[in-house]
Automatic annotation (TrEMBL):
GO terms for cellular component: cytoplasm. Residues 223-268 are annotated as: Disordered. It comes from Paramicrosporidium saccamoebae. Signal peptide: none annotated. InterPro entries: CTLH_complex_component, Galactose-bd-like_sf, Kelch-typ_b-propeller, Muskelin_N. This is Muskelin N-terminal domain-containing protein. Residues 11-64, 88-174 form the Muskelin N-terminal domain. Gene3D superfamilies: Galactose-binding domain-like (2.60.120.260), Kelch-type beta propeller (2.120.10.80). It comes from the Eukaryota. Residues 229-242, 249-260 have a biased composition (Polar residues). SUPFAM superfamilies: Galactose-binding domain-like, Kelch motif. Keywords: Kelch repeat, Repeat. Pfam families: Kelch_KLHDC2_KLHL20_DRC7 (PF24681), Muskelin_N (PF06588).
Length: 649
């Protein structure tokens, strides 16, 4: 079908076909009028039980591609959700009826209310085309079920063969059909074993899908060095025997490429990127608890060694010391892009708050400035705690969110956030793609924010986890609260990575917000204590399967000094990168969030290897065992049935 039709939905006309109940004059047909200022212009249910619903009937069948085309303007006193998962355009089913069911109300004494419902979708020839594909799919599944039924019935072999020949329907994978013939029809277990062994020998990925869907990952942490701070926050010794601070002073003047020590110092708010070509990690900047850092490092995975590329990149034409910035790597161009920085509130009045943009050439080992201030060029102003992602196929960098810093806001408490921008590498052009004030028809509004994570998926050409389609300029909110679907809680400075080949998204949580007793005003608990949200560093590691749309928690930890050599302590403002070839994550530094020592930062370096306990060879061995066990059972049953009965005494 024409995908342009999907990206340009129109408003759909409808009538209220049915409702569970309504109270007083709050009739269901009032949701068709958009009058938010009138309290009576809404539907309100007669009760707040889980049986309440509205059913809408469209004037003609239409494609409602996802929940973004169904917009509810609801009372601030009532919470509503539409229980409809987003669908891909090629799996969308034409519909003429839409049922809206509430999941939760504001409280036990409130009924459900809806002020206005606007449906957006596609009508016309596209609907008939999708309907035809859906009909073909139903026919195919019907024939397949008939074939399955006939094959299981004795004496229906000819009917099975005739139907399969006439329809051309593939019941299952040919290997499964051959195994069925060996085991069920002929009882040839030895032949079945040979089939499995031969199939595995010819295709080593034979059991990969089964392993991916049924065998969970086992996380394994390994500490690559012991950082530059011990557990009590004091400087540890480097390879020369003295502390880092002592040896740094003893070196005296040195060139910018002469490192003071053999690995990066403690820091948080730094940036790291993974280079799959050089199999290396690049680290730049951060805050060590006292000052911003401008050193630039490379970690070689093959040699397990850090090398300092520059102690101060500014001296070589690069960015100055900074933290809360972002970096992305263009693998093909061999360029590392750096954008954004945090400026302390005490120094903003005397600092040039310009939005600098740099890249580092990994082959020539040189820095290049792409603009001392990209804001006049159509780019964002000076921002920090934003996110960047890169589309290498089209040479586009996306920058989203972050908090704006400008002289016009120095001294006041106003907080401004940046929108979604794109940077065309080829044309050296910035463009504002979306702002909080812009409303895109048929698309969810994505609010600007800080401390989030963002990834570009080159397979689907989307930015996850709000899914932003970069080609259609549409946004789908995958789920409003992931923790209600078995996923992670809301957090700050979460780090995420993507395995493109397996379509698996990994998330390492950071700063979490919890409720705890507090002396400040706020909602009270049953025992009279005040519930006040507090923030704490609490880490957990999650997997989101993009194919199955399922969250799985792989790892979680709590602060425990006894485990500091076997797993990283809880932290935030850390950095995490991923090597998909070895399925290994690398974690460096961060802020442990110690209230007694708020300036403390970490310098430990960890790797997290994800492995599965069962390999394809293990699945083959298990399959052969199951075949032999079944053969043994059948031999026992056959012997029992053939043994003559004992003569009666």
């Amino acid at each position: 079908m024409n995908t342009d039709d999907i990206s340009q939905p129109t408003i759909l006309r409808y009538q209220v076909a049915e409702c569970s109940s309504y109270s007083a004059g709050y009739r269901p047909d009032l949701i068709m009028e958009d009058r938010p200022a009138e309290q009576a212009s809404r539907w309100s249910s007669a009760s707040n039980d889980t049986q309440q619903y509205l059913t809408l009937r469209l004037e003609q069948p239409a494609l409602i591609c996802s929940e973004i085309e169904l917009r509810l303007t609801c009372s601030t006193y009532n919470l509503w959700k539409v229980p409809q998962e987003p669908r891909e355009p090629d799996t969308t089913i034409p519909a003429q009826f839409v049922k809206i069911a509430p999941l939760a109300a504001w409280g036990n004494s409130f009924n459900y209310s809806i002020w206005y419902v606007e449906l957006r979708g596609v009508t016309g020839p596209s609907v008939a085309e999708v309907q035809q594909k859906w009909t073909i799919h139903l026919d195919y599944e019907s024939w397949r079920l008939c074939l399955q039924f006939l094959r299981e019935k004795p004496g229906m072999e000819e009917a099975f063969a005739a139907l399969q020949s006439r329809t051309g329907v593939k019941l299952e994978d040919p290997l499964v059909s051959q195994l069925f013939d060996c085991v069920v029809k002929r009882g040839a277990f030895t032949d079945a074993e040979s089939l499995l062994a031969q199939g595995y020998q010819e295709d080593s990925t034979l059991f990969e899908d089964y392993i991916r869907d049924h065998v969970p990952y086992q996380p394994q942490w390994s500490r690559l060095d012991h950082g530059v701070m011990n557990s009590n926050g004091n400087p540890s010794q480097d390879s020369s025997g003295g502390t880092i601070e002592e040896n740094s002073r003893s070196f005296g003047p040195r060139s910018t490429n002469t490192p003071a020590h053999t690995h990066p110092a403690v820091r948080g708010g730094h940036q790291m990127v993974w280079d799959p070509v050089g199999r290396s990690i690049y680290l730049f900047g951060g805050w060590d608890g006292h000052r911003d850092l401008g050193d630039f490092w490379r970690y070689n995975v093959a040699t397990a060694e850090w090398s300092c590329l520059s102690e101060d990149a500014r001296r070589e034409g690069g960015p100055g010391p900074r933290s809360c910035h972002k970096m992305v790597l263009h693998t093909a161009l061999r360029r590392l892009y750096v954008f954004g920085r945090y400026v302390d509130t005490e120094t903003r009045a005397s600092t040039a708050l310009t939005s600098e943009f740099f890249y580092y050439d990994l082959e020539r080992h040189t820095w290049t400035s792409l603009g001392e201030d990209v804001h006049p060029m159509g780019g964002p102003g000076l921002i920090y705690d934003h996110q960047m992602a890169i589309d290498e196929d089209r040479n586009i960098i996306y920058v989203f969110g972050g908090r704006l810093i400008s002289h016009s806001h120095v001294g006041n408490n106003e907080t401004l956030y940046s929108g979604l921008y794109s940077y065309d590498i080829t044309g050296n052009r910035w463009r504002l793609v979306r702002s909080d004030q812009e409303i895109v028809p048929g698309s969810t509004t994505i609010k600007s924010r800080i401390g989030h994570s963002m990834i570009f998926n080159p397979t689907t050409r989307q930015l996850d986890f709000y899914v932003y389609d970069v080609d259609r300029n549409t946004v789908v909110e995958m789920v409003k609260e992931t923790n209600k679907l078995g996923g992670p809680d809301a957090g700050f400075t979460q780090r995420s990575t993507l395995d493109v080949a397996h379509q698996e998204l990994f998330l390492f949580s950071g700063l979490m917000r919890e409720k705890s007793g507090s002396a400040f005003t706020g909602p009270t608990t049953n025992n009279g204590q005040v519930n006040q949200p507090i923030e704490s560093a609490r880490n957990s590691f999650w997997l989101y399967n993009l194919r199955q749309r399922e969250w799985i928690r792989l790892y979680s930890n709590e602060a425990n000094p006894e485990n500091e050599d076997t797993e990283p302590c809880p932290r935030f403002a850390h950095q995490l990168v991923y090597d998909p070839e070895s399925r290994t994550h690398y974690l460096f530094g961060g802020n442990p969030g110690e209230s007694s020592n708020p300036r403390r930062r970490l310098g430990d370096f960890w790797q997290l290897y994800l492995h599965r306990r069962r390999r394809p060879a293990d699945i083959l061995r298990r399959s052969i065992f199951l075949l032999r066990r079944q053969q043994f059972f059948e031999m026992c049953y056959a012997r029992r049935d053939s043994t003559p009965a004992s003569p009666s005494m």
